[in-house]
Amino acid sequence: MSTVLICLALAALAVFGVRSFSKRLSGGCCGTGGEAIRRVRVQDRDKKHYPYETRLAVGGMTCRNCARRVENALNSLDGVWARVDLSKSEAFVRLKSPPDEDALRAAVQKAGYWVPGPAAPRREP
Predict the structure, then answer these.
(1) C-alpha pair distances (Å), 90 with each of 4, 5, 29, 77, 99
(2) pTM score, two decimals?
């Protein structure tokens, strides 16, 4: 009887694994249907207008769509211009006013990711 239960559990895991794998093949690692997420462009791209800078480590990103979601979440904040480096799992953030670490962290979390530690020291004018 226990052998039957173990076989059923293994079969269920195999079915789940195959379904997950097929979703990733057809839609990227996030199962987004294969379409790339469009970048939210920052209106003001003059670096001189952003005297503050910080770096945020970002956890949970696995593909360029993940990085784009984090970047878009940060860029949707007023006075923020962010670029995400997926290979380093971090966001480089330019700001027009002193950084509000809680707001940056909340934007990343709302996008479905996390900030594992404190932000890197920031540069001020």
Answers:
(1) 47, 44, 19, 17, 16
(2) 0.70
